[in-house]
Design goal:
alpha/beta; 6-stranded mixed beta sheet; elongated
Length: 593
């Protein structure tokens, strides 16, 4: 309902301003409609040899007054309409972005960035055009046509002559009814193909480095060319229909003008109307032709905007998967236990469970390690703790509260999450580290960088913490990006910290130092460490081993080694690989010497 009233609510809220603008356009065109009558009267006086120098000056001033009044009022009306359209564009994009932020991860897993950009850029632009050019040109055109017909009616021009001249115009509503829906449908196809092309472009640009490394530029060009070809095909279909439509309306206007010249000329020769009336008639009909061309353009614009409005309405009508209950409560900022009871979970649109019958208690202030092979459900468990996906009711409790009854902002503000591939924004290193609070002091930013062992790297840059990063942090190496993301998690200093394989891109020595800083800095706070490398979590108070969505082992590092299960096997493989790697390196060094 809210989505469907997007445009209507805006027009209702701004109706006094639009009324002022349309009134200015109305007065401007009424004044302009005096132009043919003044010229007609002047022609009659000239034909009757009654013209004098004072009359020439007077009529010149009349025409000057008409021109100035028309220009000023039309300019004011046009500026107001255009300005209000830009404000609508601004507010709509804000609403859409706000809506995007409310949608869950499930939505973004099915829709690419390019597709979403198409809504924000293309569809909103078409709506803006409908409010700017559409309202201005439609008001201008309709008022000109109506004013011209009224001025002809109150003049001395015979009514039957006026009726014959405007007769071809009665076919215009039928033409609009016939062509309008076709233009709208073809406009929608153009918008959909533009969205597909934007999505393809975003994907190609994002993967340009991979494309070059694999030398598959030709394949990528052919894929993008197909998306462009679809746009061209749909746009040409729209252009053909729009061109026919926009040509038909002025054609009927031209028929009216031809009728005025032939029939009006005949009556002038016969002496039934004066030469001035004939001049006025032809000028009035000429005034009508241009607005008809504008009306065709307006209808095309409105149909495109209607297609875009439907797309935006569909987008805004999507309800977020993750929503707060009416009486959601905030989460306290103190250390709290986490209880997971009989948790089973399958992602939307699939029946295969990613987690099955998980039971786990994480005591406040403790460090818990989670290990398992790829696809065992480690990251899924984290997503449920952050409520990017909803767990079944009554399965996850934090601080004695069901996670589904906690306010979302409160829940996520009490958890610092550091993913394996931490996203960095195209801004300064300082802003990236202090992402959760841009007012953080420089001292706390430096401390977080030191804890994440990225401080020395940052200090080597000419601009240090003010160094601006490229897109997605491409300025930094993989390890530096990961440690900058770690610093972002450390500075938040939340009661719960989740590291999702967040030290995988650093060497063993740096990893040991980071883990040491972590243990020292979070003595009384809860930390959950997900890792493939056992060295990152062997110090944990409790370690859980996941396999195919189930907890298969649990205990301390020593207990799990003694158990001789999956954990012991992983440890043996990793330690064996480490020792083998060290021996290999040593052999290489000896050989080099």
């Amino acid at each position: 309902m809210k989505a469907q009233r997007l445009l209507k609510d805006y027009l209702i809220s701004k109706w006094p301003i639009y009324l002022m603008a349309i009134t200015a356009i109305l007065i401007a065109n009424v004044v302009q409609s005096l132009y043919p009558r003044v010229l007609g009267d002047f022609t009659d006086m000239l034909q009757n040899h009654r013209i004098t120098e004072p009359l020439i000056l007077r009529y010149s001033l009349y025409l000057l007054g008409i021109g100035v009044t028309y220009g000023v009022l039309l300019g004011v009306g046009q500026y107001t309409v255009m300005r209000m359209a830009r404000l609508f564009e601004f507010s709509t994009r804000r609403k859409m972005f706000s809506h995007f932020t409310s949608l869950s991860e499930n939505y973004y897993s099915k829709h690419g960035v390019g597709e979403l950009l198409s809504y924000v850029m293309n569809d909103v632009s078409y709506l803006r055009d409908s409010l700017s050019q559409g309202i201005h040109q439609s008001a201008n055109s309709v008022i000109i046509v109506v004013s011209a017909i009224i001025m002809m009616s109150i003049s001395s021009i015979p009514f039957y002559l006026i009726a014959c001249c405007i007769a071809p115009l009665i076919f215009i509503p039928w033409i609009v009814y016939l062509y309008g829906p076709v233009v709208k449908n073809r406009s929608r196809k153009v918008q959909e193909s533009l969205a597909a092309m934007t999505k393809s472009a975003e994907e190609q640009f994002g993967g340009i480095r991979v494309t070059k490394k694999f030398a598959v530029e030709k394949i990528m060009r052919s894929r993008f060319a197909k998306a462009v070809d679809d746009i061209v095909d749909n746009q040409l279909k729209l252009v053909r229909m729009s061109s026919i439509f926009q040509a038909i309306l002025p054609f009927f206007g031209s028929l009216s003008l031809i009728t005025a010249i032939i029939f009006g000329g005949y009556l002038t020769i016969r002496g039934r109307i004066t030469l001035g009336e004939f001049v006025s008639l032809t000028l009035y009909m000429r005034m009508i032709v241009n607005p008809l061309a504008q009306i065709g353009n307006v209808i095309n614009t409105m149909q495109r905007a209607k297609a875009s409005l439907e797309r935006i309405n569909q987008l805004l009508s999507i309800e977020p998967d993750i929503r707060e209950v009416e009486k959601a409560k905030p989460l306290s900022a103190k250390p709290m236990d986490i209880h997971i009871r009989n948790l089973s979970f399958a992602y939307p649109d699939t029946t295969v469970e990613s987690l099955h019958d998980i039971n786990l208690t994480i005591e406040a202030g403790k460090t818990v390690g989670i290990v398992g092979k790829t696809g065992s459900g480690k990251t899924t468990l984290v997503k449920l703790l952050l409520r990017t996906y909803d767990s079944p009711e009554g399965t996850i409790w934090i601080g004695g509260m069901d996670i589904r009854g906690i306010q979302l902002d409160s829940l996520r503000s009490q958890i610092a999450y550091v993913p394996q591939d931490g996203f960095l924004f195209s801004t300064s290193i300082r802003d990236n580290i202090a992402f959760h609070n841009r007012q953080s002091s420089m001292t706390s930013i430096e401390t977080a960088a030191q804890q994440a062992k990225v401080y020395d790297n940052i200090m080597e840059f000419p601009e240090r913490f003010e160094t601006r990063l490229g897109e997605r942090g491409i300025t930094l190496s993989g390890g530096q990006r990961q440690r900058t993301s770690l610093a972002r998690g450390f500075i938040k200093d939340s009661p719960i910290l989740i590291l999702d394989d967040s030290v995988s891109a650093v060497d063993a020595v740096t990893e040991t130092e980071i883990i040491g800083n972590l243990r020292h800095g979070r003595k009384d706070k809860t930390t959950i460490i997900i890792a493939h490398r056992i060295s990152a979590l062997m110090h944990a108070d409790h370690i859980v081993v996941l396999d195919e969505g189930q907890i298969v082992e649990r205990g301390t590092h020593q207990q799990l080694l003694a158990g001789g299960g999956i954990y012991a096997s992983l440890y043996a493989i990793q330690e064996g690989g480490t020792h083998h790697g060290h021996a290999g390196n040593a052999g290489i060094q000896i050989h080099a010497r």
